[in-house]
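pls ignore typos typing on phone
magnesium ion + seq
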Amino acid sequence: MDRPDKPSNFIRQIIDADLAAGRVDHVATRFPPEPNGYLHIGHAKSIVLNFGIARDYGGTCNLRFDDTNPAKEEEHFVKAIEEDVRWLGYAWDGLYFASDYFEQLYGFAVELIEKGLAYVDDLTPEQMREYRGTLTEPGRNSPYRDRSVAENLDLFRRMRAGEFPDGSRTLRAKIDMASPNLNLRDPVLYRIRRGLIHHQTGDAWCLYPMYDFTHPISDALEGITHSLCTLEFEDHRPLYDWVLEHVSVPCHPRQIEFARLNLQYTVMSKRKLTQLVDEGLVAGWDDPRMPTLAGLRRRGYTPSSIRRFIERLGVSKADNLVEYEQLEGVIRDELDKTAARRMAVLRPLRLTLTNYPEDGEEWLTVANHPKDEGMGTRQVPFCREVYIDRNDFMEVAPNKKFKRLVLGGEVRLRYGYVVRCDEVVKDDDGNIIELIGSYDPDTLGRNPEGRKVKGVIHWVSARHGVPAELRLYDRLFRHPTPDADKSVADWKEHLNPDSLQIVSGVVEPALAEADPEQRFQFEREGYFRRDPGQAEGLVFNRIVGLRDSWAKIAGQGK
Ligand code: ATP
Ligand code: MG
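k done
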């Protein structure tokens, strides 16, 4: 994989120190998604970090589904997550489910009860909140805190057997209701969820362990040495360590927290992404405007561009909001080097060259890439009728900067001849529907005699071109931080109504059989790939424009 040098960051420094001090003799990490949605670009940070560290240290990285909440988790999310991790270019060593450990976890809970470190509580969720205290006030002990071990064991067994309704009882750790860290005020370890079908364990359980109990033990059972998670778990680390100190697990992994990746002009919480999908505001989890890996993939982003984007950002403990341009810049730089050039006209306007033989045609040999001969050539047909883009024609030049075609003026057709527009055909409403012109036969690959033609525009033979649907994607939101802005009642008000524009264009015939795996630069328009979906005919997705059009808009103060 492309990695000229190993990145250095505070996590790697901790690992180096652990290895040097002999605290560990190998490195084992894991990526632990909850299968309640698709992975997004934020998850890619965790994936690149965990799998990258395992690879660089000759260690292992597991994929573990953190599946302790059957109400929200589904089998198809499991499959989608596996596909996304593989697509990003990583192979896991072990594939596990936290639910694989349900029986063992239950045993560890019994161990805590027997040690007098856990108890069954009958407080309702509301009462529990009252008893919990606040950041400035200590909590109060539950009246059920001092139940005997025997009674706790009996009740816990009956909770498992399904004798009690949801919410009526929990198992809690007995730590310290006065702790300044709220996570240590007798956290809930187990809750009752009856009548749910878990995608892995079916109806075997109606008692489900909480994340803070499940995660450290799963890590330890898998022999994870370094458990990397995002900063919001920093305050949970004392609980992570408490659990591992009090149950008989084979090792004690080290939890290290890092800052989440936040990206402008999008939302990243799975709950909100789910809302966009469920409310039909996007076409699905793989809608090319979504920040999901499936969406970015469908849009045309490559795995290498995403890995490079993440690696470039680095890892730290400082919260950050990454500019969208950074993501676009990485794919643009990559595609500039790797994408074959093609011509496509997005807004076709017919130009008939009256002095060109009526049934004549020429096949021009054109390089696929201006700087990479190895990418070969293709044949581009030219004939009497060509399409040019409506934006490349005006009857009268609006200013001196307009170097394209005007009535009575000349322009070069890229790779072809210099042409002139002699006449404009309009409909009854005055709309331009067609151009009549001529070409200069002495200008193929040569400058015309005695005059300068500065403008060069792209074109497609009208007789050979293939109709195509072009999907021009833009940012999903108009606001850089849609869900942090308090001036609107609903973050969805910031959705960009112009995030998808569909145009009917014409593409050169070499694109008729385009492979969705291939990316192209449509000259002067941007980078595109054929949509891998089932749509009939040719459909291309715009991956990214040729340059950053938003910077310009921002500069104009819009
Ligand atoms: P969400 O809050 O959107 O539901 P999550 O953090 O609950 O996301 P998980 O499936 O639990 O999602 O995440 C799996 C792993 O990916 C966790 O270790 C989590 O810390 C990490 N992760 C999730 N989002 C980001 C992000 N934006 N940046 C970096 N890592 C992330
Ligand atoms: Mg989570």
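The longest strand covers residues 418-426. The CA atoms of residues 170 and 405 lie 76 Å apart. more later
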